[in-house]
Amino acid sequence: xxxxxxxxxxxxxxxxxxxxxxxxxxxxxxxxxxxxxxxxxxxxxxxxxxxxxxxxxxxxxxxxxxxxxxxxxxxxxxxxxxxxxxxxxxxxxxxxxxxxxxxxxxxxxxxxxxxxxxxxxxxxxxxxxxxxxxxxxxxxxxxxxxxxxxxxxxxxxxxxxxxxxxxxxxxxxxxxxxxxxxxxxxxxxxxxxxxxxxxxxxxxxxxxxxxxxxxxxxxxxxxxxxxxxxxxxxxxxxxxxxxxxxxxxxxxxxxxxxxxxxxxxxxxxxxxxxxxxxxxxxxxxxxxxxxxxxxxxxxxxxxxxxxxxxxxxxxxxxxxxxxxxxxxxxxxxxxxxxxxxxxxxxxxxxxxxxxxxxxxxxxxxxxxxxxxxxx
Length: 375
Hints:
Layout: H1 2-14, H2 22-39, H3 45-60, H4 70-79, H5 82-93, H6 98-102, H7 106-112, H8 115-126, H9 131-138, H10 145-154, H11 161-173, H12 175-186, H13 189-192, H14 204-221, H15 226-240, H16 245-268, H17 273-276, H18 279-309, H19 328-340, H20 347-371
Helix pairs in contact: 2-3, 3-11, 3-16, 4-16, 5-10, 5-15, 5-16, 7-18, 7-20, 8-9, 8-18, 9-10, 10-11, 10-20, 11-18, 12-18, 12-19, 14-15, 15-16, 19-20
């Protein structure tokens, strides 16, 4: 009888119920909410499902992130900045740069939308974060999860990687909810109805030269951006050169999905209750929202300025796409524009600033690395 009781006690002590804290239960609830949003509401499911499931696993079985645990080795690929760079290759292979090439002024809109990053940087310092942590947090304003993870690892701020990555990917998925009120607040109905002229055709030579030239120019000025910009442009070169169809398809599909699974679950697994339930986490989430809102507003306001300069030829709504959430931000510009006028088609025009925003966020990350002497 004693043997049976001892055996049952040992089994009970080995269950998660005997070791979980209230914080673990809270994080499990958060994970379930994220899974609901991803599956039921279709909020960026390819990202939120693995992140939420990683969150669920680590709060039930914390050892999964300890050395020897499966997700520990996944996470090392994040720390070494391998996975974010590979995701950029997939993004490049799946993105059409023609709208940006056809309208180079889109670079200005993409640059303007990065204002939120620098505003959040100084605000984070005021809230007590050190300069490197502030930079890692501020990059959330670009709504670019891979860049956030890349910069966080390069600056040695892995203790904040969980909250930063979750905030960045969450805001990416919530672009259709966060951006429209800001866009409508800062524009008039007349401005939202502005129809833009058709973009000029872009030749194959231009498409091939663009990723090569951008890689050379940006990497020469900021060599620290080479891993991100280089992989982004390599993926795009696979797409446009016409002789590497298999590589393009692999980078855009199979490789991209494999990387998303590994990165998503490992990032989610950094959100254990002990690491995530801190006051600093709330500040990071709030700062990310401020940065994203400021970036959206700056893009729209600069779009209004360009609208004035061009005498009404540019719809200010496309400025909001300057954050680098590709292609969600461009779709939101289209949606808000079509609400004002169902015949208004802004998607391709918005893709220019959207792609420029990807480049701009990577440049912002490289700038921070250069400031801190990180190679």
